[in-house]
Specification:
Elements lengths: L8 E3 L6 H4 L5 E6 L4 E8 L3 E9 L1 H4 L7 H23 L8 E7 L3 H18 L3 E5 H15 L8 E6 L4 E8 L8 E8 L5 H11 L6 H10 L25 H13 L2 H14 L5 H4 L5 H29 L3 E5 L6 H13 L3 E3 L3 H4 L4 H12 L18
Parallel strand pairs: 2-5, 5-6, 7-10, 10-11
Antiparallel strand pairs: 1-4, 2-3, 3-4, 7-8, 8-9
Helix pairs in contact: 3-4, 5-14, 6-7, 6-8, 7-11, 11-12
Bound molecules: 5'-O-[(R)-(carboxyoxy)(hydroxy)phosphoryl]adenosine (KG4) and zinc ion (ZN).
Amino acid sequence: MENRLPSDVLALNFRPDMETQSTKGKRILGIESSCDETAAAVVVDGRTILSNVVASQIDIHRKYGGVVPELASREHLRQIVPVVREAMEQAGLRLEELDAIGVTQGPGLVGSLLVGITYGKTLAAALGKPLIAVNHLEGHIHAAFLEAHKLGEAPKLPAVCLIVSGGHTVLYEVKAAEPSQNEGFAYRKLGQTRDDAAGEAYDKVSKLLGLGYPGGPILDRLAASAVNAPAPTKFGPTKTRGNPLDFSFSGLKTAVLYHVREHPEYKQEISKREAELATGHRKFEELLPLSSSQTLGLVREFQNAVVRDLVERTMNAAEVCNVETILVSGGVAANSQLRARFRERANSRGLKVYFPSRALSTDNAAMIAAAAYSRFQHGRFADATLNATASMPLA
Ligand code: KG4
Ligand code: ZN
């Protein structure tokens, strides 16, 4: 394993100032390796971020158009040591100064999870510190709390939380737990996707349009450039039988596919963009000139449909649960239109909506350390038998 930090490690902008560095409190090292990001962070008392380091594997998986599990675990093995070291250095702490180690137990890719879990377990045993197992989804919920704390606010509970990423699209009700539960928070699942996650739909539509991987960021920007582009087609609201708070995105993805197949005029520009991608040109500025107004209009209509569905079902959930707070987290929460629409709708209903910053929306370890703190307070520690759990419901 390498001793130095690989150049592709992205050290996020959470440089501690001297005041926060000297903060006394419970210092938890969070470790996250459930998918394709190796991440480590130190957070004090579940609210003050001393460091937040993420090594992304996007460049490795890009050519396959999605995450390849075998490659992901191998890369986690390469990155885990330097990423943890960098997180400790940025926090200005020695390992002995930590109070606990929190690690993602699941859900996620088993081979990837195992790297973080094995490392976390070993570290905890060697240091004689408690080990805390964290559900990745609970981490995403805490990302929204962390952001609120940064603003000096505490979200009013109960709340409704939408977790929307490449792997998940799920709605929870979040409450303060009853004292008898010996937990910080209680969760109730309200609905989830029946097929693709919203981020997965972005990635698949982007691939079929020759716009690269991951799809969310590029489609977000192309849709914003489509102001005057006519709509080549319209996508109506998705109907789901049964639970009205469930989502479904595979029909929309298929509708885009059929539309493109039925209109041969898309073919040439898709081939041109694919050729551009093959030579490493994947930036928005490079792909925009190769995208017709018909394509821009299509991307905008696709995004309108996804955003409308996510926002309306979440607003309905807020009404059903009679809450005043909405939390939105996960990679797709970075979407500019989603944020704007949520703010608009929440304002008009007098609700408060919290989004993590972009860095806290996508997979990171600060959210794992924050979630671990709440378990730490209740003495809920894991032991050496802790194992990766691929499918791990939160409620
Ligand atoms: O949370 P995340 O980093 O990883 C997991 O899937 O757990 O989310 C990644 C997903 C990808 O599908 C990506 O296309 C999507 O989030 N995404 C976005 C945006 N940025 C990332 N989707 C829509 N708009 C964005 N701006
Ligand atoms: Zn995630």
